[in-house]
Write the structure tokens for this entry.
Amino acid sequence: MKVNIANFSFTSPRFKLLIAAISAIILLIVTANTLASKEVTLTIDGQSRRIITKAGKVSDLLIEKKVKVSSHDEVKPTAGSLLFSGAKVRVRHAKRVVLDVNGKRRKVWVIAGKVGRAVEELGIDTSADIKLHPKSEVKIASGMTIKIKLLNRWIEKIQTDVAFGTDRQDDSSLAKGSTRVAKAGKLGVKETVIEHVMAGRQEIEKIVRSDKIVSAPVNELVKVGTRVPRATVASAPPAPSRGGRSMVMAASAYAAYTGGAGGRTATGTGVYKGIVAVDPRVISLGTKLYIDGYGPAIAADTGGAIKGNRIDLGFATAGEAYQFGRQTVNVRVLD
């Protein structure tokens, strides 16, 4: 049987009869559902159980099982929904917590079971640059404080000088004790990159992202004098002065840094021609001499083998010393 709705008007007896029939059918369904026993699943804060009930609506079931709910809690399906066999009813009770955002606190209700979900529930994007305490996976407890720091970051680059060192190099062209800067040093540069993490106006973290030498220092070069001024050996006449004495002595020869000799004499002079080594018990140090075949000299050095009537003649080079070898010489004391 087809019913053409066009044949009805909102005020016609036929329309009123149709509405009454529909209402009767709905009432019959609701009544049958209310009177019939049905099996439903009730989950409260994650704890589930199966229940046989004759409750017709979700709200009736909650009353029947003495489940208290408030306007802050979540009930699914809604309290006014009809119950049918196999229905799943879930209740999640809200918890009141303290929300602290950059130091500003307020009390809020949350339904989520963990901190991260609760923050999202409050409309805060957890993928944004925030710092959350407690951590996202911590379970929500009534009265707990959730701290959220909305962060901003900025990068600072700091450049500092790196000191240079000094390289020293001997220079025989400079007098001993004197120095000269042959090459100026150059400071290096170290760059430190720091990330500052801010929560509002408060810096909560400082992270050193890099710390490296971007320009290496260059050492200065200093020349150090090693030249020792020669002692003045007075020229003497070939013949001794009046009152002088003469001695025939066994003579050997030496030069600086040869045959175990050093570069300095016992009196601090260098080793060169005109400097001779003597036995101070025979000839006092500092005595001016004239040596036949050698020339004027000064007694300025000693030696382990120079004892008694022996003398060691200084030369500028080892070749000259070897050429002299060993000889017997006449030594004249000039003073």
The chain has four helices and 19 strands. Helices lie at 13-35, 58-64, 115-121, 318-324. Residues 232-243 have pLDDT under 50 and may be disordered.
